[in-house]
Write a structure and sequence with these properties.
Keywords: Signal. This is Putative secreted protein. The protein has about 140 residues and is α+β, with helices and mostly antiparallel strands. The protein has one domain. About 15% of the residues lie in helices and about 30% in strands. It contains one helix and six strands. The strands form two sheets. Strands 1-2-3 form a three-stranded mixed beta sheet, with no helix packed on it. The chain has a three-stranded antiparallel beta sheet with strand order 4-5-6, with no helix packed on it. A hairpin with a 4-residue loop joins strand 5 and strand 6 (about 120-130). It is globular, with a radius of gyration of 19 Å. The model is unreliable at about 5-20 (pLDDT under 50).
Length: about 140
């Protein structure tokens, strides 16, 4: 009986964590970023219009273009594409995850050095996790 009583707080904590953290695929657990300029084919005509993700907080993001699900590129886009000077792409060692699964990769920012016109596909790196939520990725 004492063992059960001692385990009760841990069971309550575990339940609370599941409820508090929730499923990352639940709409309350991720942020939707819907912007046509983020498409890999989009090139901005003005540097004033460039997007900057510097202040994005760590978390789950669902990308869309005009309300349709989008996928962060898994290839190095040309610099100044995706509406930014330093487009971000995902480098994966594994294929995209199956529904309900995660895969860990690396978010890379592409950059070009103006003085030499030398392009670098992954000048800035950060760990990234992708989850397949069935009909979309976060």
């Amino acid at each position: 009986m004492e063992t059960r009583r001692a385990l009760l707080p841990w069971a309550v904590l575990a339940c609370w964590l599941v409820l508090a953290l929730g499923d990352p695929c639940a709409s309350s657990q991720y942020t939707v970023i819907d912007d046509f300029r983020r498409h890999p084919d989009y090139t901005s005509t003005s540097t004033k219009d460039w997007l900057c993700d510097r202040y994005l907080m760590p978390g789950w993001y669902r990308f869309q273009v005009n309300g349709s699900n989008a996928i962060v590129p898994t290839f190095c886009p040309n610099v100044t594409r995706c509406g930014t000077q330093a487009p971000v792409w995902i480098r994966l060692n594994d294929p995209m995850p199956s529904a309900g699964q995660d895969v860990v990769g690396e978010a890379c920012a592409a950059w070009i050095f103006p003085s030499t016109s030398t392009a670098v596909c992954c000048i800035l790196k950060s760990p990234a996790k992708i989850r397949n939520c069935g009909t979309y990725l976060i």
